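Treating backbone geometry as a discrete language has practical consequences that deserve illustration. In the encoding step, the backbone of a single protein was reduced to a row of integers, each denoting a local shape. The amino acid sequence and the backbone structure tokens for this protein are reproduced below.
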Amino acid sequence: MDKTKYDLIVTIVNKGNCTRVLDASKRAGADGGTIVFGRGSGIHEQAKLFSFTIEPEKDIILTLIDKKKTEHVLNTIVQEVELNEPGNGIAFVMDVEDVAGINHPAGE
């Protein structure tokens, strides 16, 4: 198992904005990310069209990152994707206990 300490940055944005998140994270030192598709169900997420409820689609970007880079990558994502503006998305960090399957040393 890889003993480098990692975090998982989870970023949730409206569909189509995943490229902005990936570009920002790569510029800040991340190797890439995994995109998962989802839909919102929050109280501010539902819209109506001809009395039909529309649940907005979401892009969920999972970025496994060396803990030493987490703060810089997260701050870059927040700034470049403008996550502090209402309706632009959310990002949070989760501690990763162990990792397998990474075939390159951290930082390469």
Remarks:
- Residues 13 and 88 are 6 Å apart (CA to CA).
- Helices lie at 18-27, 67-80.
